[in-house]
Amino acid sequence: MSRAELYEALIKREYEPELANEAASLCVERGFVDDRAYAGTLADRYRRQGYGARAIAARMRQRGIDRETIDETLEGLQYDDSIIDTYIKKSLRGETTQQARSRAFASLYRRGFKAEQIKEGLQRVCGDETEFYE
Prior knowledge:
The structure is a single chain. The chain is mainly alpha-helical. It has helices spanning 3-12, 17-29, 35-48, 53-62, 67-75, 81-92, 98-110, 115-126. It has 2 domains: 3-75, no CATH class; 81-126. Helix 3 packs across helix 5, helix 6 packs across helix 8 (115-126) and helix 7 runs antiparallel to helix 8.
């Protein structure tokens, strides 16, 4: 749970905003809440689920993680090519037509992967230099 999520949970339980803020700050000070560690856990979980950096960042923002922490966390995030390749194969459904490749590209782009990552993956999986629609 992030500091922001804790604050919101306390507000929902009808604590005064000042008291909720104090309690959240105290939890951070005492190490019960650590947004950096939480961001790392979230990034790893969503990466394993097949999400790209853009989607992971959006999910972290929804949980109240600040931009600086998100940027630092995603900076060290590494993707194994096999993760992208697996999702490309799943999206292609055994087809290699231009339409199937475009569908796979769009699917992975919506999952938050960068266009260059997807193009490289499509070239690895399909084995040619065909251009892909974005």
